[in-house]
Design goal:
Elements: E1 5-8, E2 11-14, E3 18-21, H1 29-42, E4 55-62, E5 72-80, E6 84-86, E7 94-96, E8 99-102, E9 114-124, E10 134-135, E11 144-153, E12 156-164, E13 173-184, E14 190-194, E15 205-212, E16 218-226
Parallel strand pairs: 1-3, 3-4
Antiparallel strand pairs: 1-2, 4-5, 5-8, 5-9, 6-7, 9-16, 10-15, 11-14, 11-16, 12-13, 12-15
Length: 231
């Protein structure tokens, strides 16, 4: 697997395992050049008849110029078909990345990709002790899945989703199944992790949480997609 790109809050860089994007598009020249190098060396270009150039990616699209917790996100595991890069105007780059269908063998229990951003791109040095969560308006009983991307750190830690009936710090509990397991943040990665079952109850409020092990600082993005009533 190659090293795809990061588009988030005006910051551009390369990381392995997935694609994360927000609406920010204006770049400094050095940022534009760095992005072009990343694309040229990492992202697959479509070659007619050569399906080996197609790759599946954990994909996230955050809506909003400066993505923040609670913003809607489009999450999934999709076939990234190709990419094109244009930077004709100073400070502006246009990247087009068409995606194919959702991976047919992945998370078949969930039939939609829309969720909420729990943690926008940024670094953390301690566990989450804030009672503020992302309001899902009501509890649901159809499980869901978390999508995470990591962007560096100095050791190991675990990313989790927690939920609560209210926004009181002490009332949050781990959401069954939604944990990354211990990650070495010195290597950037991404993943999709479903709840224990499609019938798992998810309380009204959700938030990010980190269990620090050897890490003192880490940078990541985390989203959660609630399951909806089966058709």
């Amino acid at each position: 697997m190659g090293v795809p790109l990061l588009l988030d809050e005006g910051r551009w860089g390369a990381y392995s395992g997935g694609v994360h994007a927000s609406d920010q598009r204006v770049l400094r020249d050095r940022d534009r050049d760095a992005l072009q190098r990343s694309l040229a060396t990492a992202l697959p270009r479509q070659v007619r008849g050569a399906r080996s150039h197609f790759q599946h990616r954990h994909t996230r699209r955050a809506r909003g110029g400066l993505a923040a917790a609670g913003d809607p996100v489009f999450c999934g595991y999709y076939n990234m078909l190709e990419h094109t890069f244009e930077a004709d105007n100073p400070g502006v780059a246009h990247v087009t990345i068409p995606f194919g269908m959702w991976h047919t063998a992945y998370l078949q229990e969930y039939n939609h990709p829309w969720g909420k951003l729990l943690h926008a791109y940024g670094a953390e040095t301690s566990a989450n002790s804030s009672g503020t969560g992302v309001d899902g308006l009501a509890a649901t009983s159809y499980g869901g899945y978390m999508v995470y991307h990591t962007f560096g750190g100095d050791g190991t830690a675990t990313i989790k989703v927690q939920h609560s009936v209210d926004e009181v710090d002490g009332n949050y509990a781990d959401l069954g199944g939604c944990t990354s397991g211990e990650i070495d943040f010195s290597t950037n990665t991404s993943g999709i992790v479903p709840t224990t079952a499609v019938t798992t109850t998810v309380n009204q409020y959700t938030r990010w949480q980190v269990d620090f092990n050897s890490a003192n600082t880490l940078t990541f993005v985390l989203s959660f997609v609630r399951g909806i009533r089966p058709l």
